[in-house]
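User: Reviewer 2 asked us to show a designed sequence for the structure in our supplementary figure. I'm pasting the structure tokens here. Could you produce the per-position amino acids so we can include them in the response letter?
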């Protein structure tokens, strides 16, 4: 149990600015003043209201000034209160004038599931002073530790047609424990305050804890690794030469040996796919076996809903990456500041459940093919598996497809010709609405032939998963854009028997795989 709190301060990162004493249970205003030595006119004299409660080890924070403050890397909003703890970072202006909350003596924190994670954020000394506070005392005017070696010299390597770039800094070696991090909004943020960087120079550390945190893990025999998705890397938008300088600058700023993996494009290396991790284990860890139970991954793309002061996460890719690997996962707030685990929006599609399906069609008393002449109208989004199903299970039927014929008019003509010849026909088009389906029903009615509708029973997330899986396993497959899939589903009208169909048959997705490797890939979350 920690000793009774005796004092609380805002400890300034910047040497010219003074630390600010926060009395117990008394509200004070902090901003531009002689007390802080801040002269920045964008900072209000009453920029932020602070109320420290020594009993609860909390500091209540409320932006009062016009411009936003920064709290643990996120913008605040006027009138919205935040609760700070020992070691939290407060910027009087977002991205500027940084302070660290420090109680004396510091309270103990619960910093997550890993015992090592809890231990490493504190020095092994009797006063149990948080590492963050000790680092602030050791930093020089540039924010670097005075005796820190420059590890930015290193080696760049390119793999798999420039879809993976790996930077290994001087002194980086294979280790059995991996401390892995995403980069953007986990190690760094934009200087400009924009959502996305203006250029490769628009970055700064996410908070003051980053260098000390990573160094402590490195000193405890963890290999420090960065896994970052950079889809546009190597294009005019993100020149490779400039981005390499950014990575080297980041490694120099942190000041320890580390390895950085950058996934370009839509390859197997892009998170949440596990290609970068697999490549680390198989090629880049000096044949040292990794202990996953003692390793972890930190990332901001965690699927968290929006809350006051923070937008919802842009994706779920980092959390799913850790789930795919069965790695312990932390958000930056949990990792650096010991915040409690928060809820997140879990994916609606679970690939491991999808492969358990063995029922190909419903109702099961139906038949896929009939002894009498008929017309089957397929209905389903691009990428839903219509063509695969028709070619495998309806081989005896005359096949009509717009992709091969060019337009729906030719499809109508070929359907009419085949029905006139007494053949059964399957129309393998998307047929999203009543009008597109009615054209074929009218032809069948003219020939006095019954019609059935086969509907692909697969949701949007499953379609997109299948689409990426095919891209990763079939070099001839052309990726279908999300825009095309979304547009189809937005305008989709489910078919009914009232349109003139004798039966509506739902076709389920029952996967089959060429290899065990393909099966393992399919069972992963492939989209964030």
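Assistant: Here is a per-position design you can include in the supplement:
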């Amino acid at each position: 149990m920690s000793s009774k709190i005796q004092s609380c301060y805002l400890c300034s990162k910047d040497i010219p600015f003074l630390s600010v004493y926060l009395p117990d249970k008394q509200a004070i205003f902090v901003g531009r003043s002689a007390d802080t030595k801040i002269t920045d006119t964008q900072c209000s004299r009453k920029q932020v209201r602070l109320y420290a409660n020594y009993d609860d080890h909390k500091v209540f924070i409320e932006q009062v000034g016009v411009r936003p403050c920064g709290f643990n890397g996120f913008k605040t909003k006027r009138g919205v209160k935040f609760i700070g703890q020992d070691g939290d970072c407060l910027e009087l202006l977002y991205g500027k004038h940084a302070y660290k909350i420090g109680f004396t003596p510091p309270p103990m924190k619960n910093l997550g599931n890993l015992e090592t994670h809890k231990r490493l954020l504190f020095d092994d000394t009797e006063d149990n002073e948080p590492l963050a506070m000790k680092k602030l005392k050791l930093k020089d005017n540039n924010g670097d530790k005075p005796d820190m070696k420059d590890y930015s010299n290193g080696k760049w390597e390119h793999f798999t047609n420039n879809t993976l770039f790996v930077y290994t800094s001087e002194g980086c070696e294979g280790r059995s424990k991996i401390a892995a991090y995403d980069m953007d909004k986990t190690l760094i943020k934009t200087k400009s305050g924009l959502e996305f960087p203006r250029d490769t120079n628009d970055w700064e550390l996410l908070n003051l804890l980053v260098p000390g945190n990573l160094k402590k893990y490195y000193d405890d025999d963890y290999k420090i690794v960065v896994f970052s998705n950079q889809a546009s890397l190597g294009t005019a938008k993100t020149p490779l030469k400039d981005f390499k300088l950014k990575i080297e600058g980041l490694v120099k700023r942190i000041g320890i040996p580390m390895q950085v993996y950058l996934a370009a494009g839509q390859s197997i290396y892009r998170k949440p796919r596990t290609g970068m991790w697999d490549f680390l284990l198989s090629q880049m860890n000096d044949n040292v076996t990794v202990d996953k139970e003692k390793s972890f991954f930190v990332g901001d793309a965690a699927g968290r809903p929006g809350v006051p002061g923070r937008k919802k996460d842009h994706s779920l890719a980092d959390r799913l990456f850790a789930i795919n690997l069965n790695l312990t996962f932390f958000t930056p707030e949990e990792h650096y500041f010991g915040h409690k685990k928060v809820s997140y929006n879990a994916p609606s599609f679970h690939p491991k459940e999808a492969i358990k399906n063995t029922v190909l069609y419903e109702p099961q008393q139906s038949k896929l093919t009939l002894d009498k002449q008929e017309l089957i109208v397929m209905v389903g989004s691009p990428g839903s598996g219509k063509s695969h199903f028709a070619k495998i299970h309806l081989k005896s039927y005359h096949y009509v497809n717009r992709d091969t014929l060019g337009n729906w008019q030719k499809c109508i003509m070929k359907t009419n010709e085949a029905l006139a010849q007494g053949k059964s026909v399957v129309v393998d088009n998307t047929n999203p609405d009543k009008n597109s389906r009615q054209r074929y029903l009218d032809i069948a009615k003219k020939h006095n032939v019954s019609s059935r509708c086969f509907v692909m029973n697969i949701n949007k997330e499953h379609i997109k998963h299948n689409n990426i899986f095919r891209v990763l396993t079939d070099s001839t497959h052309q990726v279908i854009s999300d825009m095309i899939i979304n547009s189809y589903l937005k305008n989709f009208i489910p078919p009914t028997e009232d349109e003139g169909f004798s039966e509506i048959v739902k076709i389920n997705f029952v996967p089959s795989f060429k290899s065990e490797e393909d099966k393992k890939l399919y069972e992963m979350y492939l989209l964030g």
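For the response letter, you might also mention the following. The radius of gyration is 29 Å. The first strand starts at residue 7 and ends at 12.
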